[in-house]
């Protein structure tokens, strides 16, 4: 995995394309501050067009407030949009061009030769305007792989500094991304490779990680995975995995939950208790074997400690708990409470828990063991 990891957040562009989602200027500034806390290196702050004036205001805001955060604008391969971007002076202009025949022919009524010519003209014009250029290949996972490599090589020769592969309708697999990135790595000498993944089959995060492991250096993420249809790679999952498992120390997972919670409120999209990394219930456990393992060493059943993501471990005792777990908990609550637990007592505790919704409070556990000892 590339040591020069670049996580590009596109919540303010792709995320705001979610139906019913519209952030105010104050909302956007708060989101950007949260991204900086997490350690995000680049933010795509919007679309290059006079119809989207917030992007220009955000660039000016970040120059003073977050000077180290790189800022990019998404842009069509149109001269007027490139001109507009040049006035805003983003760090990177993300030009977008479709590559699949279904987009070229059926959506635009164009062909591959048109795509080549327009891309080259746009890159050269953007470079002439003094901007660094990233080229995003829309629907790249449904195009001819040879055409993808050819377009990437032409983009590099024309002055692009990054190639971004977009899985526009989320149909790629990790293996597919591995092959695409490997084919580009073989042919490109200067351009870095980035990916933009959609989650239509639940593989956006996996595809992003696979691309990084294959040699990509940039991945797009969105807070809560907001975006068109089923959304995009989730910031929380990608950052969580890279920081908590892969050890990227410049990322700060303790700030993931505060930002996710804030955006959830802004968008009226509640966070499931079992949502990876940020869910309130992901460190809750009730089953016997797992409780025993957690008692002896939490690493048995936890991939990372709850404190690293501002969470707390919650061990539940009830209808699924075994003898060892119940015995351990009782002696935690009241030392030397009981030397052993009979099978009959364990069954009684589990039946009581089942009739109580599956779990027992500490007071209920102690009361039931006291009653059992007098019988």
Task: Based on the model shown, name its key terms.
two-stranded parallel sheet, alpha/beta, TIM Barrel, 375 residues, 2 domains, 14% strand
How does this structure look, described?
The chain has 2 domains: 6-267, TIM Barrel (Alpha-Beta Barrel); 284-374, no CATH class. The chain contains 14 helices and 10 strands. The chain has helices at residues 25-38, 54-65, 79-88, 101-107, 112-128, 145-158, 174-187, 204-214, 235-244, 256-267, 288-296, 323-333, 343-355, 362-374; strands at 6-9, 42-47, 70-76, 92-98, 132-138, 162-167, 192-197, 218-221, 284-285, 314-315. The strands form 2 sheets. An 8-stranded parallel β-barrel has the order 1-2-3-4-5-6-7-8, surrounded by 8 helices. A two-stranded parallel ribbon has the order 9-10. Strand 6 (162-167), helix 7 and strand 7 (192-197) form a beta-alpha-beta unit. The longest helix is centred in the N-terminal third of the chain and has 17 residues, at 112-128. The N and C termini lie far apart (63 Å). The mean pLDDT is 91.
């Amino acid at each position: 995995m590339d040591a020069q990891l670049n996580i590009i957040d596109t919540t303010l562009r792709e995320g705001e394309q979610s139906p019913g989602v519209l952030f105010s200027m104050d909302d956007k500034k708060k989101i950007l501050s949260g991204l900086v806390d997490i350690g995000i290196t680049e933010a795509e702050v919007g679309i290059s067009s006079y119809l989207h004036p917030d992007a220009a205001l955000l660039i000016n805001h970040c120059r003073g407030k977050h000077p180290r955060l790189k800022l990019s604008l998404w842009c069509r391969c149109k001269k007027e949009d490139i001109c507009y971007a040049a006035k805003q002076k983003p760090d990177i202009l993300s030009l977008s061009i479709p590559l699949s025949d279904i987009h070229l022919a059926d959506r635009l009524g164009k062909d591959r030769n048109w795509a080549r010519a327009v891309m080259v003209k746009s890159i050269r014009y953007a470079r002439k305007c003094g901007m660094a250029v990233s080229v995003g290949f829309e629907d790249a996972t449904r195009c001819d792989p040879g055409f993808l490599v050819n377009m990437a090589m032409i983009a590099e020769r024309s002055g692009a500094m990054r190639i971004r592969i977009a899985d526009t309708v989320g149909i790629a697999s990790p293996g597919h991304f591995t092959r695409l990135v490997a084919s580009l790595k073989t042919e490109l000498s200067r351009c870095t490779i980035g990916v933009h993944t959609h989650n239509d089959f639940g593989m956006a995060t996996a595809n992003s990680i696979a691309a990084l492991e294959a040699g990509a250096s940039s991945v797009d993420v969105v807070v809560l995975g907001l975006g068109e249809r089923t959304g995009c790679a989730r910031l929380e999952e990608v950052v969580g995995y890279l920081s908590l498992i892969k050890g990227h120390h410049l990322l700060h997972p303790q700030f993931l939950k505060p930002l996710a919670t804030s955006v959830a409120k802004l968008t009226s999209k509640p966070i499931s208790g079992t949502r990876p990394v940020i869910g309130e219930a992901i460190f809750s456990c009730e089953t016997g074997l797992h409780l025993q393992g957690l008692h002896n060493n939490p690493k048995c059943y936890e991939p990372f400690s709850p404190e690293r993501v501002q969470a707390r471990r919650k061990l539940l005792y009830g209808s699924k708990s075994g003898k060892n777990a119940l015995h351990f908990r009782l002696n935690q609550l009241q030392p030397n409470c009981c030397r052993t637990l009979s099978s009959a007592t364990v069954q009684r505790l589990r039946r009581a828990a089942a009739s109580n919704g599956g779990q027992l409070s500490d007071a209920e556990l102690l009361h039931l063991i006291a009653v059992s000892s007098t019988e």
